[in-house]
Write a structure and sequence with these properties.
This protein is of the alpha+beta class. 18% of the residues lie in helices and 33% in strands. The protein has four helices and 16 strands. The strands form two sheets. Strands 1-4-13-6-7-8-9-16 form an eight-stranded antiparallel sheet. Strands 2, 3, 5, 10, 11, 12, 14 and 15 form an eight-stranded antiparallel sheet that branches.
Length: 322
């Protein structure tokens, strides 16, 4: 939360320029056949254990902690749904129980509907410390009828200033949509409903730090930023519309390396070429590259790599990489 308040100050000038997610039937064992009975019971137990494991992997009670908001954040529907709310007194937020060092992570969000001007829904990965790494999705609210702005950024060793902003090709408040981060040692890919919108490649070979050494937690928050979020702060939050609510479901980090006690769940013996770890070397194929170009040609509204006025001494080095 503190970082994003600080980040808001950094983005104030930027935004002022750009206005623009079986039944319980039981098999009855054949009592005349002990071996068949044992096999049936064993199979049933395996099914139950498998179901429980799968359910816990997508349960917000299992995966996340509510960290602030005095009751404004709630886990509902037996852990299948999480909501964040914002009113004039406070916003709210949560964080993952696990830390990750690389991963393919999905979350479905439904954003604040109606007049959401002044509000920001942030969903991001971040490490700790003064030289933190961070991978950001931020959704900047707007007046009814005007589009949300999807703001993305990448921090490495405490340095950001790598903003790209987009409109979306659908109403993100009408239903759940999937927002994904693929983070492997070679690249970071931001995707929406499976369509890539941004790729940040590892450019350490030309001196650009890349997030690869600091484990990160998942964070999300809904908060008031009407001093900068909508038209550079010209449009203020309409508190008569409060409470503002954003909803989350279907979190998936099955393909992610959990970092715990100084070691990764992705062991060195697990080849990245194996089916379960293919994402560790995943890159955009030709079809995905065409989709990326389509999004950036039609929906990108700001790209730091084309903002020569902002970087009078020259664009950042990664911008000139082919």
């Amino acid at each position: 939360m503190v970082k994003h308040l600080a980040g808001g100050e950094e983005m104030m000038e930027l935004v002022s320029i750009n206005y623009s997610s079986s039944s319980s039937k039981q098999n009855t064992p054949n009592m005349a056949s002990p071996s068949a009975s044992s096999l049936c019971i064993t199979t049933l137990l395996l099914v139950v254990v498998s179901w429980a494991t799968s359910a816990s992997a997508r349960n917000f009670y299992h995966d996340f902690d509510i960290t602030w908001g005095d009751g404004r954040a709630q886990i509902l529907n037996n852990g299948d749904l999480l909501t964040l709310s914002l009113d004039k007194a406070s916003g709210s937020g949560f964080q993952s129980k696990n830390e990750y060092l690389f991963g393919k992570i999905d979350m479905q969000l439904k954003l604040v509907p109606g007049n959401s001007a002044g509000t920001v829904t942030a969903y991001y990965l971040s490490s700790k410390g003064s030289t933190w790494d961070e991978i950001d999705f931020e959704f900047l609210g707007n007046l009814s009828g005007d589009p949300y702005i999807l703001h993305t950024n990448v921090f490495s060793q405490g340095k950001g200033n790598r903003e790209q902003q987009f409109y979306l090709w659908f109403d993100p408040t009408a239903d759940f949509h999937t927002y994904s981060i693929l983070w492997n040692p070679q690249r970071i890919i931001f995707s929406v409903d499976g369509t890539p919108i941004r790729e940040f490649k590892n450019a350490e070979s030309i001196g650009v730090p890349f997030p690869k050494a600091q484990p990160m937690r998942i964070y999300s928050s809904l908060w008031n930023a009407d001093d900068w979020a909508t038209r550079g702060g010209l449009v203020k939050t309409d508190w008569t519309q409060a409470p503002f609510t954003a909803s989350y479901r279907n979190f998936n980090a099955d393909n992610a390396c959990v970092w715990s006690s100084g070691s990764s769940s992705c062991t060195s013996s697990a080849s990245s070429s194996s089916d379960g770890n293919a994402w560790l070397s995943e890159e955009l194929d030709s079809t995905s590259q065409e989709r990326l170009k389509w999004v950036q040609s039609n929906y990108m509204i700001y790209n730091y790599c084309t903002d020569a006025k902002r970087f009078p001494q020259g664009l950042p080095p990664e911008c000139t990489e082919s």
